[in-house]
Every structure is written in C-alpha cells, then in structure tokens.
Amino acid sequence: xxSQMANYSFHPESSESSESSEKNDHEFGTIHKKTRxxxxxxxxxxxxxxxxxxxxxxxxxEHEQLEKKNxxxxxxxxxxxDVLKQWKExxxxxxxxxxxxxxxxxxxxxxxxxxxxxxxxEILATY
Length: 127
Prior knowledge:
- Residues 1-63 are annotated as: Disordered.
- This is Basic leucine zipper transcriptional factor ATF-like protein.
- The protein is mostly helical.
- The chain has helices at residues 2-7, 12-94, 107-113, 120-126.
C-alpha cells in the first residue's frame, strides 16, 4: 500500500498548476466570449448604421423628387392662371357684343329662343 501511495503522492505545486490551468482556461473562455460578444455587437451596430444611412438616402431622394414635382406643379398652376386670364379677357371682349346676354335665362324660355332640334345639353354647352 505504501508503494501505491508513493505513486499517488501529493504535490501541492502540481495541484496548484492544474487549478491555475483551469482558471486560465476559464478566463480565456470568458475573454473569448466577451470578444465574440463585442464583435457581434460591433457588427450589429454597423448594420444598424448602414440601414440608417440607406433610409436617409431614400428619404433624401424622395425629398428631391417631391421638390421637382412641386416645381412642376407650380409651373402648371401659373400656366393655368395664364389660360384662365386669357379666357376671362375673351369673355370680357365678347360680352358687349353678345346677343345671349339679354336672352331669357330660364330653360323654358331657352326652348323658345333656340331651334327645337338642339338638345338641352347643346344649349347649356353653348350658353
């Protein structure tokens, strides 16, 4: 039995080094986990920043398109105002010479003024 115990002799240094090795392995694992977590977090933050940049780019493009549309619509408004002005001037020029200005206004009176073959829509369209 003594010979067996000699084989299993207690060496405090080897026990400490084995505990130290386990401790180092544990610390290494912890450090490795922290490093992986940091890397994962860094990649997630980078992805988020890219999405924000893309969204900002899209919004900027939409803004530019809306600005162009706004300019185009403002031009169209000005053109329509010009057309309206021309029509008003035309009506003003026509009013003094218009025979219909003194014509009866009710539809029953219009029937007496215009030929029978004209439909009421034609009468109203010309009025």
